[in-house]
Every structure is written in structure tokens, then in C-alpha cells.
Amino acid sequence: MVHKRPPIAGDSPAATASERLRVANINRQIAEELGVREQQVEATVALLDGGATVPFVARYRKEITGALDDAQLRTLEERLNYLRELEERRITILNTVREQGKLDAALEAQFWRPTAKVVSKTFIFRSSRSVAPRPRSPKRRGWSRWPTCC
């Protein structure tokens, strides 16, 4: 399982600095959620990014991870994947809205506030053009309960 985006040749130092800041924020958030030290999270993320599996880390790398157990490591891996996907999605959505010319400072500040994928999806739909809602009930679709053929 690949956890980390490899650096691209065109990455600028400013882009890598902002990436390091995002990684630090993700590590800090995971450490707070699990109630462990940030150094434990950083060491575990480094092992997972290096290709180690959770059972391997739990069994053979306890001294590096600070004796995190299997359940904590699995939770850490799940949250790491979730938060990284969320960050990628946020950046994609932000770039899309910026290309549309609808991004201002207040909207960008509001955009970075949510912490769930569902909220990010809602944000992109609000910023795009509106679409008429689909009818949900059979009656609205024009179907009646009884056939009218007989």
C-alpha cells in the first residue's frame, strides 16, 4: 500500500515546504486522536511509507514506534490514508474553484475549515452550477400504483 506521493521534478521549494507543513499537521492530528506522542506517529509513518506492513511494524519495530500495539497501528494507518486523501481532494477542489474564478479569501478560509470528505463534496457542489434535483418518488416520476391498460 503506497502512502506517500513521490516528489515531482517540477516541485518548487515553496511547494515542498507547504507539503511538509501539511504532513506535520496530519501527524499532529493523528497523535492527538490516538493520544500518543508526535514522534511515535512520525516514526510509524516513516516505516509505513517505506513499505512496511502493520503486522511487521507491530511485531518487529516496537522500539521505533514506542510500543504502539496492533490496534493503534491499524487505526493510525486508516486515519493516515483518510487524511491524506482528504488533503488531496481539498487541493483538487480548491484548484477547480480557482480556475472557475469564483475563489475569494473568505471562501478559501471557509474551505479549509471542514474536516470530512462529505463536507468537501458539499462545498464543490455549492460552488458549481446548480442542477435540477431528480424526482425521488414513483409518483413524481409519473408512475401510478395501478396500471391503466385494462
Describe the structure.
- With 150 residues, the chain is mainly α.
- The chain has a single domain, classed as Arc Repressor Mutant, subunit A, CATH 1.10.10.
- It is 63% helix and 0% strand.
- The protein has seven helices and no strands.
- Helix 1 packs across helix 5, helix 3 crosses helix 5 and helix 5 runs parallel beside helix 7.
- The longest helix has 31 residues.
- The relative contact order is 0.08.
Give the termini distance in whole angstroms.
60 Å
Q: Give the CA-based shape.
A: flat
Q: Which superfamily, in CATH terms, is the homologous superfamily?
A: RuvA domain 2-like
Tell me the number of structural domains: 1
Radius of gyration: 22 Å
Q: Work out the helicity level.
A: 55-70%
Structural topology:
Elements: H1 13-34, H2 38-49, H3 54-60, H4 62-65, H5 70-100, H6 105-111, H7 117-127
Helix pairs in contact: 1-2, 1-5, 2-5, 3-5, 5-7
